[in-house]
Specification:
Layout: H1 10-17, H2 24-34, H3 46-61, H4 69-78, H5 83-92, E1 104-109, H6 112-116, H7 119-128, E2 142-147, E3 159-161, E4 164-167, H8 171-182, E5 190-191, H9 217-222
Helix pairs in contact: 3-4, 4-5, 7-8
């Protein structure tokens, strides 16, 4: 279901990002991340460093961020690993963007649980706000992608927008989230119907009394 990524022109990319380097704060963060791993195992830091680099690119472009090839090369060189190994990681996980995206990257889950619970309505709401799969809106605000399972099946359908999940969506609730973002607001992440984490609608129906409330469960078990 995922759309093929259109890698930007290499000459333009290298002209813009060929001299990429950590800013002062991220240089310190990268050093701390690498130090978490034993000597000789620093390449294990490739995932957090790619994420850090993507966030720096995002901060510099006022977008969710992406990973130009020179930026991946920079991370690989810092970890003394072949570029292709870092590139394999970046191309495997959808958390890394290989092409520019908008301020908000709207990732609609279309896997079976979300599909059965109405992901088509979520996608329709996105399209009715001018989004097109694999493209960024003309104002640069939204990029729309359809992705595989994001692990929130109990609260389907859902979308991930940048770092936040919005769950229990329908057409109108999806529009509400999108419109709030467009106004510069930050909608509350999580369930859009007030569900407690992944508890049943209306709240938990079992284990409603906590052990810390001095309830004597042993008497119930004995009975």
């Amino acid at each position: 279901m995922a759309d093929a990524v259109q890698i930007p022109d290499e000459a333009e990319t290298r002209a813009r990002w060929g001299a990429f380097a950590w800013n002062e704060a991220n240089a310190a963060t990268a050093k701390d991340v690498i130090a978490r791993y034993p000597a000789g195992r620093q390449q294990s830091a490739v995932m957090p460093l790619l994420d850090l680099a993507q966030r720096q690119v995002g901060a510099e472009t006022n977008t969710q961020g992406w990973l130009p090839i020179p930026v991946i090369e920079f991370v690989a060189a810092q970890l003394d690993m072949p570029f292709i190994r870092a590139y394999e990681v970046a191309t495997f996980y959808t958390m890394y963007n290989l092409a520019p995206v908008g301020r908000y990257h709207v990732q609609v889950c279309g896997t079976t649980p979300c599909m059965l619970r109405g992901s088509d309505d979520v996608m329709r709401a996105c399209k009715d706000r001018g989004m097109k799969k694999g493209a960024t809106t003309a104002d640069g605000l939204f990029t729309l992608s359809e992705v595989e399972c994001l692990g929130v099946c109990a609260n389907a359908p859902m979308v991930q927008i940048n770092d936040d999940n919005y769950e229990d969506l329908d057409y109108d609730r999806t529009l509400a989230v999108i419109d709030a973002l467009a106004r510069g607001e930050t909608p509350k992440p999580g369930s859009t119907i007030g569900r407690q984490t992944s508890a049943p609608e209306g709240g938990p129906t079992t284990l409603t009394a906590m052990v810390g409330e001095n309830h004597d469960y042993r008497s119930e078990w004995a009975a």
